[in-house]
Amino acid sequence: MQDELNTPPAKLHIDGVSKSFTSKRGKVPALESATLTVDEGEFVCLVGPSGCGKSTLLNLVAGLEAPDTGSVMMDGKRVTGPGSQRMVMFQEHALFPWLDVLGNVIFGLKLKPGLNDKERVEVAHYYLKLVGLERVMRASIHELSGGMRQRVALARALAPNPRVLLMDEPFAALDAMTREQLYADIQRINQARQRTVLFVTHNVREAVCLGNRVILFSPNPGRIREQFVVDLPRPRDINDPALAGLAGEITRALKGHTRVQSAE
Amino acid sequence: MKRFFIALTFFASLILIWHLLVKTGIWSPVLLPGPGAVGEYLGVALQDGSLLSASWVTIKRLLAGYLIGCLIGLPLGLMTARSQTLNDTLGVLALGLQTLPSVCWVPLALIWFGQSESAMLFVVIMGTLWSVLISVDNGVRNLPPIYTRAALTMGSSGFHTLRHVILPASMPYVISGMKQGWAFAWRSLMAAEIYVTLLTGYGLGHLLHFGRELNAMDQVAAVMIVIVVIGLLADKVLFSPWERFLHRRWGLNG
Ligand SMILES: Nc1ncnc2c1ncn2[C@@H]1O[C@H](COP(=O)(O)OP(=O)(O)OP(=O)(O)O)[C@@H](O)[C@H]1O
Ligand SMILES: [Mg+2]
Description:
The complex is a heterodimer.
Chain A: E1 12-23, E2 26-38, E3 43-47, H1 54-62, E4 69-74, E5 77-78, E6 86-89, H2 101-110, H3 117-130, H4 146-158, E7 164-168, H5 176-192, E8 196-201, H6 204-210, E9 213-218, E10 223-229, H7 241-263
Helix pairs in contact in A: 2-3, 2-4, 3-4, 6-7
Chain B: H1 2-23, H2 35-47, H3 50-82, H4 84-99, H5 105-113, H6 117-141, H7 145-153, H8 158-169, H9 171-195, H10 204-213, H11 217-250
């Protein structure tokens, strides 16, 4: 387990990546020449209006989708398919209803070689404790509240110790109180052990609260427009006025891009 | 315990009403003998072993055919769900054949296999196969793709995904299909047994048939009761555990 804790986070290189989908109405360019470098252990938030290719970018990095042009590299190696080095936390929790909470967290661990069953259970316990769910380990998923499900999904994504964590609007469906709790949790967890994180959200304040950097997207076709470095001290409180100020600035920039876009 | 007593009272009153209807002459004992006479037949038939051996013959046929039907239907359903070509061919065929009442297989089975155990087996398999195939196909087709995507990102692929994600995820459909398959198999086997006399073994259907020929209504009624009880037991033994599992995990009403 000690060894498990020491795998370093990875560096991501997204280089000139484009992706379009063919639908009934023709070709939809979802993402156009996106270039982005994410350093080891960096927490990068992706913000932008609906349909600007944020999920597409995440799927490309996850390896669930292949880019039309350009490449996604992790530590200098090209990403060609999904793998447990890059864990995804989907917008809907995507937990498996036929397994209990513990079973869900162990699922990914079972696919990791070099662990015996006892160690797997230990690791799962560790992460469930980390997200504060050690008391409901034997519960079925449908018995949990939405916030608890997101925590299980977080524990499931963290447990196999991925080097990159890809989170797609994980907290969109939650109430403000639960979300604030999870912001604190995530910051605490990431403090204890850094991971490279790509985090998609519609909520600019959330992005400023969590990210080292905030990347702005604009739609039609999806493009990376601008980025902001967030230099506030951690742990950050979402209600901090300095944070709100920066969030306001980013929101104005975001509106600007969208307006320019619709005028074009 | 309370539930048990309520059920007990219910069935006791049913028997009592039945008894009174025959006793007062509202029902003629020629058409339907009273519970006493039926019970008497049951006692004798249980003692001379004819009832038990007939039940055993029937259950053996049913289980063998049902098992084979499931073992064929499950992989075929998985395949039709994943391949468009198979779905357009085998899938459509299965859908058509499933609407065919499984009794309709009996004449064909007789022509193909003669009056033999194979004919019985064939009828039971046909009763099971198509509904299992279709429900597995349905279950897999209606799976939210997010499950397989999530599994992929956790390093699962190929057979592992099939075994550990697709199959368990489609379980609500699979179980209900297997239950339906069981009901069809059970019905078609009874029809086949009533229809065809087999020298290799008398099943419950045969007892029913002989009872009618001999005008022994106590035998007919008793065998019917045994058939109902076996159906109930099968439901409790074969499907209740799964339905409890579905209920616990999915929160469905099983
Ligand atoms: N599988 C697909 N087939 C066809 N079109 C798709 C597919 N996936 C995405 N698209 C299109 O690509 C564009 C970008 O989609 P994407 O899901 O990446 O947006 P998004 O930024 O995540 O939006 P949201 O914030 O609403 O989640 C959209 O126009 C969408 O319609
Ligand atoms: Mg999205």
